[in-house]
Design brief:
This is Sigma-54 dependent transcription regulator. Keywords: ATP-binding, DNA-binding, Nucleotide-binding, Transcription, Transcription regulation. InterPro entries: AAA+_ATPase, AAA_lid_NorR, GAF, GAF-like_dom_sf, Homeodomain-like_sf, HTH_Fis, P-loop_NTPase, Sigma_54_int. The protein is of the alpha/beta class. Helix 1 (about 1-15) packs antiparallel against helix 2 and helix 20 packs across helix 21. It is built from 22 helices and 17 strands. It folds into four domains: about 1-165, Beta-Lactamase, CATH 3.30.450; about 195-270 and about 280-365, Rossmann fold, CATH 3.40.50.300; about 370-445, Helicase, Ruva Protein, domain 3 (Orthogonal Bundle); about 455-523, Arc Repressor Mutant, subunit A (Orthogonal Bundle). It is elongated. It is about 50% helix and about 15% strand. Strands 3-2-1-6-5-4 form a six-stranded antiparallel β-sheet, with helices on both faces. The protein has helices at about 1-15, 20-35, 70-80, 85-90, 95-105, 135-140, 145-195, 200-215, 230-240, 260-265, 285, 300-315, 340-345, 350-355, 375-390, 400-405, 410-425, 450, 455-460, 475-490, 495-505, 510-520; strands at about 40-45, 50-55, 65, 85, 110-115, 125-130, 220-225, 250, 265-270, 280, 290-295, 315, 325, 330-335, 360-365, 395, 430-435. The structure holds adenosine-5'-triphosphate. Adenosine-5'-triphosphate (ATP) binds next to helix 9, helix 15 and helix 17.
Length: about 525
């Protein structure tokens, strides 16, 4: 009796010490085997769905479907009563899992199958005792067996409860994380909406994509027509990224002559070429820790494209004339208004660079395809004008908006901005902008003053400049000037683009792009 008490206490202590369910079941089954001379003891655990019993000790076939009555455990669970199974009966059951268990138990003369249920009625699983001397009443009636069984059930429930709690905590944490992520994305989208204005579906989803792109280190390729906001997008990516405190280096590949672009990007050492009278840090190095924005990437010369590709693979580069390679940790955002696909097909743009640049592709929709944005954008530009000038219109009338909605904005948001700013100038402070002051279509039409020049003067200088004091927006004036020159030159060459391009020292492709941009036709 004394001996049994000691054994019971030792076994109980061992069970209580187990802090997870698999260890608890393993310890309990080993103890039962030792204490009652069993050839084997198994504890089959009912899973959360209540449909499958698992026997983790069985290497293979350790799962028993509770609805499959070709194994004896389903009966035991269904009746809730313990039962004995003889060796002869066991041989007759052809369930693969059961046969594996029978085999691994050394085919005992008898098996005792006992369902285990908690006080709250929750079914835990099935206990399987295997023995060659079946005296199940003698064993299961012993206080030691009853005590151990009771303790096992108690500890089993405790483990399930703490597992439930861990799961619930994990679930809670996951949903909180999810909420937090969604909240962060929402706030960042709101922040972005102050500079990238527009309530249309496409703009809302573009902002969400920008926030996602900003959170990654992937190279971003922004595509869209001229003036649609690619630059604003690139700045948004930089400002919302963890590089926001670092530099944002902007390079317009179309604005820098091909011969200079390489040394501008890579930098050079003193004496690297004639005129290089001192070392110069390149833009790649300047972008270290920040973002490099390569605008008009479609205009990058082929030879430089290969070098850029190499830099993107390794972030290593060598300034012109330098012996050592340098490293720069920058994030690349590139933009283009040209369909790069066409460049790839005609061999002027490297396909591998295209894929490397567009790890996170973004497309900015032309303004004509999102007329819902016109009102918010117009009000945004009116506010900017008023802030800058100290006073301005109150808003814009619905008739004026209606007029804008009928226009197709080849110059996109930039053109809208110019139209609104000009209208602001002509609208008394505090009034709404009216349709009469919206000078739609004006941008690329030759102003009266220019065409009114006498024909002999035109022959000498067919593109007269507007009076300098009339220029309010240098970029617009320069573009209009460029458009007028191209139009005139095409006229001179009877619409022959190749000749016109050559006479202006432009590649044919660039002239074609400018014609598209300024809506200049050959006729
Ligand atoms: N969604 C927008 N919200 C507010 N301003 C915008 C938006 N889109 C464009 N703009 C404004 O329109 C003008 C042109 O935009 P931006 O320079 O970004 O166009 P882009 O696509 O980069 O043009 P380009 O192809 O000529 O380089 C800028 O003044 C810019 O601030």
């Amino acid at each position: 009796m004394q001996m049994e008490l000691h054994t019971g206490i030792d076994l109980a202590v061992a069970l209580i010490q187990q802090d997870n369910l698999p260890d608890l079941l393993k310890t309990a089954t080993r103890q039962l085997e030792n204490a009652f001379g069993l050839t084997r003891c198994w504890a089959l655990e009912l899973d959360l769905s209540g449909r499958t019993l698992h026997c983790s000790d069985l290497a293979e076939h350790g799962e028993f479907d509770c609805g499959d009555f070709s194994h004896p455990f389903a009966h035991v669970l269904q009746t809730g009563k313990a039962r004995e199974l003889t060796r002869a009966a066991s041989y007759r059951l052809d369930h693969v899992g059961f046969q594996a268990l029978f085999e691994a138990s050394d085919r005992p003369r008898s098996l005792w199958l006992e369902p285990l249920t908690g006080n709250d009625g929750r079914t835990l699983g099935v206990l399987v005792l295997c023995r060659d001397e079946p005296d199940w009443d003698g064993i299961t009636g012993q206080p030691l067996y009853c005590g151990l069984r009771q303790l096992l059930v108690h500890q089993w429930i405790t483990q399930l409860q703490s597992r439930d709690q861990v799961w619930q905590r994990r679930l809670l944490k996951r949903s909180l994380d999810h909420l937090h992520d969604a909240e962060t994305v929402r706030t960042r989208c709101e922040q972005l909406a102050r500079t990238l204005v527009g309530n249309s579906q496409v703009m809302t989803s573009l902002r969400a994509q920008i926030v996602r792109a900003a959170g990654s280190q992937l190279s971003v390729l922004v595509q869209g027509e001229t003036g649609c906001g690619k630059d604003v997008v690139a700045r948004g990516i930089h400002e919302l990224s963890d590089r926001a405190d670092g530099p944002m280096v902007v390079v317009n590949c179309a604005a820098i002559p091909d011969t200079l672009l390489e040394s501008e990007l890579f930098g050079h050492t003193r004496g690297a070429f004639s005129g290089a009278d001192r070392d110069k840090q390149g833009l790649l190095a300047q972008a270290n820790g920040g973002t490099l924005f390569l605008d008009e990437i479609g205009d990058m010369p082929l030879a430089l494209q290969s070098k850029l590709l190499r830099v993107l693979e390794s972030r290593q580069f060598r300034p012109l004339g330098a012996r050592e390679e340098q490293h720069s940790d920058f994030r690349l955002v590139a933009a283009t208004h040209q369909p790069l696909q066409a460049g790839i097909e005609d061999g002027s743009f490297r396909r591998d660079l295209f894929y490397r640049l567009s790890q996170f592709p973004l497309r900015v929709t032309p303004l004509r395809e999102r007329p819902e944005d016109l009102e918010a954008l117009s009000r945004h530009f009116i506010r900017l004008y008023t802030e800058r000038e100290g006073s301005g219109p109150m808003g814009i009338s619905s008739h004026a908006l209606h007029l804008l909605a009928g226009y197709d904005f080849p110059g996109n948001v930039r053109e809208l901005r110019n139209i609104i700013e000009l209208a602001c100038l002509q609208t008394p402070g505090g009034d709404d902008i009216q349709p009469e002051v919206l000078r739609i279509n004006d941008l690329f039409e030759e102003p009266d003053g220019w065409t009114r020049a006498p024909s002999d003067a035109r022959d000498r200088n067919p593109v007269d400049l507007p009076a300098v004091e009339e220029v309010r927006d240098l970029k617009v004036a320069a573009q209009a000037f460029e458009a007028a020159i191209i139009r005139e030159r095409l006229r001179q060459y009877g619409g022959n683009r190749a000749q016109a391009a050559e006479s202006l020292g432009l590649p044919k492709r660039t002239l074609a792009h400018k014609c598209l941009k300024y809506r200049v036709t050959e006729s």
